[in-house]
Write a structure and sequence with these properties.
four-stranded antiparallel β-sheet; 130 residues; mainly beta; single chain
């Protein structure tokens, strides 16, 4: 369980679909999958993958639907980060310009598990347990 690429904790809603980001413990990448919001039976569709260089634990999208934020940390809940994607094409958020924000310069135990946009330019994030 602790060494696989099949964990998913991140979900966001965009236009007519839901988007899931994987938390890949073996390679520190994330894959983006989409699935329709219309009730029914579907198979999630792979959109793309991204080298997140860490474990992605949540995703958020701003009010204008033109900026996506991923939040996560490295193994051991250390060195938390945010990755912002702007100017993406269609539903492939990874095609946008990526900006990485390191939230700590030492191995603090910050188990960041949630991120939320308020409007277009403010994010809130929270830690689990700390």
């Amino acid at each position: 369980k602790k060494q696989n690429n099949y964990d998913c904790e991140s979900l966001l809603s965009f236009k007519d679909s839901l988007y899931v980001f994987t938390k890949e413990r073996e390679n520190n990448r994330t894959r983006l999958f989409s699935i329709s919001k219309i009730p029914g039976n579907y198979t999630a569709r792979l959109v793309d993958s991204f080298d997140s260089k860490g474990l992605v634990t949540d995703a958020g999208i701003n009010a204008s639907n033109n900026e996506v934020a991923l939040i996560g940390y490295h193994k051991g809940h250390q060195y938390p980060f945010i990755i912002l994607f702007k100017d993406f094409q269609g539903n492939n958020f990874f095609t946008g310009k990526a900006e990485r924000i390191e939230l700590a310069d030492r191995p603090w135990d910050w188990q960041l598990e949630s991120i939320y946009f308020k409007g277009d330019d403010m994010v809130y994030f929270a830690c689990e347990g700390t």
